[in-house]
Structures are given as structure tokens and as C-alpha cells.
Specification:
By secondary structure, the protein is an all-alpha fold. Helices cover about 75% and strands about 0% of the residues.
């Protein structure tokens, strides 16, 4: 259940960052360096996806060996969360690769 809370918190954080970005004035001022860079945020996202997949695998293994307190619905929900988070990460990667390719093909 904590994975759902983490996902919801991640979505809330992303929406808050979007609102902050939209509310900032569009001036020519030099942007201030924030506490975390894009690469840090991307690394954290990859780590969260990895953690979600590991937790899903552990829950599935616990169900397979018949551990008490592990419900099939929890296993399936965890598996779907891991799948959706991996697919989302894959789409982000695809967009980054496409943006890189577009930039590299620009005439100088």
C-alpha cells in the first residue's frame, strides 16, 4: 500500500512543480540554480521504478510460497503498478532520445 502512497505523492510533486513552472515570470533573468538537477530527478525516478519492481517481485514470491497475509489482489495491484511505472519511464526515455535526435539534426 505504501507504493500507492509514494506514487500519489510523486504525482502531487510533479503537479506542484508544473504549477511553479507555469507561475514563474517569463523574463530574461538568469535562472537560479535549484537544489536538484534534472539528472538527479531522473535518477530518483529510475530508482523509484526499480524499487516498485523489486517490491512487486518480493510480494509475488511471498504469495507463491504461501506466506500468510499476502493476498492475490495485492500481488496483482503491485504488479500492475510496477508495469505502469516502467512503461511511463520508457516513454520518458523515448521522448528524451527523440528530443536529443531532433537537436542533433538542427542546422548550426
Amino acid at each position: 500500500m505504501s507504493q500507492g502512497i509514494e506514487f500519489n505523492r510523486l504525482m502531487l510533486d510533479m503537479r506542484a512543480m508544473q504549477m511553479d513552472a507555469m507561475s514563474q515570470p517569463k523574463s530574461a533573468a538568469v535562472p537560479q540554480i535549484s537544489g536538484s538537477s534534472f539528472s538527479d530527478m531522473l535518477g530518483q525516478a529510475v530508482n523509484k521504478v526499480s524499487d516498485t519492481q523489486q517490491a512487486s517481485n518480493q510480494l509475488a514470491s511471498a504469495f507463491e510460497i504461501g506466506k500468510s497475509g499476502v493476498d492475490l489482489t495485492d500481488v496483482m495491484i503491485s504488479s500492475q503498478k510496477a508495469s505502469v511505472s516502467f512503461q511511463a519511464l520508457t516513454q520518458v526515455r523515448n521522448k528524451l532520445v527523440q528530443a536529443y535526435q531532433d537537436i542533433m539534426q538542427m542546422p548550426v
